[in-house]
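User: Run a structure prediction on this.
Assistant: Running it now.
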Amino acid sequence: MNTTSSSFVVVTCHGSYHSPEPYQPFLAALQENGIEAYCPQLPSSDLRKMNVGDVSKPDYDREPPPNGYPQPADDAKVVREILDNLIIKSNKHVLLLGHSSGAFTATMVAVPELQAKSRKANGAEGGIIGIFYECGFLIPMGESVHSFFQPKDGSPAVIPPYCQFHKRGLDGVASTKDGAKYFFNGLDEVTANRYEETLTASPVFKTVMDNDPYVAIPCAYLVTEGDLALPSAYQESMIKMQADRPGANFSVYRCPAGHSPHLTWTGGLVSAVQEFAQKAHDIGIKSKIDVLLGEIHA
């Protein structure tokens, strides 16, 4: 696989409160480098699915939708449909990119039957070659985003400084406050404020992680050293939790950006993605050779 051409596809899972709009410059940069790229709107931050009335003037105090607020499990269904089209129907190689809480979705959908290594072993082409985490949440098996980040001793919930809950509290949705500061630092004020206006809302994420690709496929993590939403110390601790496990293959990149390197470090992110895709491909080739050598010596 020559990763300088359109030999792999990037599927981005965006973060909470987001729409695909802030990711468009990154998608365009990937496409300029011959890389097919997607970033679907995920239900968990889609106001149209939250029963807030007029989405241009959302009322966050309204009752939840009849079937409850959308969760990461619903996000996974959207991404899975794209992966089925790319992998099952078209035999393409895919690199998943998970930004912030979107990392949970990327992890959840990287199931064994879609991984390139598993498909190759079954005589099929294409598949997920790896996951690139962009200042993402690395949630272990058996945990949800909420359970992982909240105190386990019954003490009051920790509310991030950019979250604003409403009438229903943790049973409702949170909108954002100071979004330009926490999500878009590093941009000029006008641009940061423009992207802040695209932010939506999010329910508390209670979907439990039921997939563990951290040791099954190559993973990369971009640490954002200027991050105000998810400080780099938290990122480093999550990396260590997964990268120190036997069999894990984590590549770690670092940049000075805040929480949106896809906007403030776009070229660097594209280069890191290309480099990691090549590395993931090389690891896959080595694994195939090791299997063949094992069969020869058996």
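The longest strand covers residues 127-134.
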